[in-house]
Amino acid sequence: MKATNTTAALHDDPDIYTSLDALRRLQFKAQGFSFTPKQPVNSILAGKNASKLRGRGLNFEEMRQYHIGDDIRTMDWKVTIRTGKPHVKVYTEERERNVLLLVDQRQSMFFGSKGKMKSVIAAEIAALIAWKVIDSTDRVGGVIFNDNNAVSMGPKRSRNQVIQLMAEITRQNHLLKSGEVGKEHHLSLEHMLEQVTRIVGHDALVIFITDGYGWNQKCSEYIKTLSQHNEIIFCHVSDPLEHQLATMSQMVISDGDMQIEVSSKTPQLQQKFQQDVIEKLDLFAKVASKYRIPVLPFDTLTATEKQLRKALGL
């Protein structure tokens, strides 16, 4: 009975597990930021060092003869040469854009030294963005994944779609348990990204919310493929303690009920830890830099909506 009560108490703790109600309430905080091409000067999405958002795509409407004042960049030179008369292509702007959220709910995300779990922060980021996307009349979908599987939801423009998306995030979030170890950690990322390359299409905005653990060369190849025809943004979630663990010689770890003391004085242990943590995160950062993917940093201490507004220059 005591164990059952303890488990129930943990699931009721908003810092450890999210809830559908909490994610629904974030619609009222989804303000003061956007993912449009026009960004504030302080936004991570602005400037020459960040990948520019393409905005909504253009649909071809018709071919017609050139009129004075037409943009010469729309000139179709093949038709012009063939007919002997200048012709231009006319486009209409798509009113809706597909936004796909990739939400990490793997075991590595079930960590937080202070404040909230990384998994909760990821859920809140996804909810804030989803509510904002719907208000902007774009379509939103998602791939919510853990260490074993990935659930895909095609982009739609409806509030019910957002609620279904958050319900799946909440479901997977509550499957996380302390003491468990994620199996085939790198394969979960590979399988998810391979799935995304098959469903995303062209001219979408893909927002990847993750801690970056398990990244490998295969993941980089999938990102390269996606970035050729879509815009990508990384939301990197980390905990302050993660950056200190590799240099700590001794530590005590607890899940709230039990605790163990771990020593990393053994050179082999410390070397392996540095390889698994530091090198993988470095590879994640290098991929973002190589393909000019903006990285929005998030920690587990500050309110998620404040971090999102700050990253976007507000």
Automatic annotation (TrEMBL):
Protein's UniProt name: DUF58 domain-containing protein
DUF58 domain sequence ranges: 62-277
Organism taxonomic ancestry: Bacteria, Pseudomonadati, Pseudomonadota, Gammaproteobacteria, Alteromonadales
Organism superkingdom: Bacteria
Species of the source: Thalassotalea psychrophila
Alphabetical list of Gene3D superfamilies matching this protein: von Willebrand factor, type A domain
PANTHER family with a match to the protein in the record: BLL2464 PROTEIN, DUF58 DOMAIN-CONTAINING PROTEIN
InterPro entries for the chain: DUF58, vWFA_dom_sf
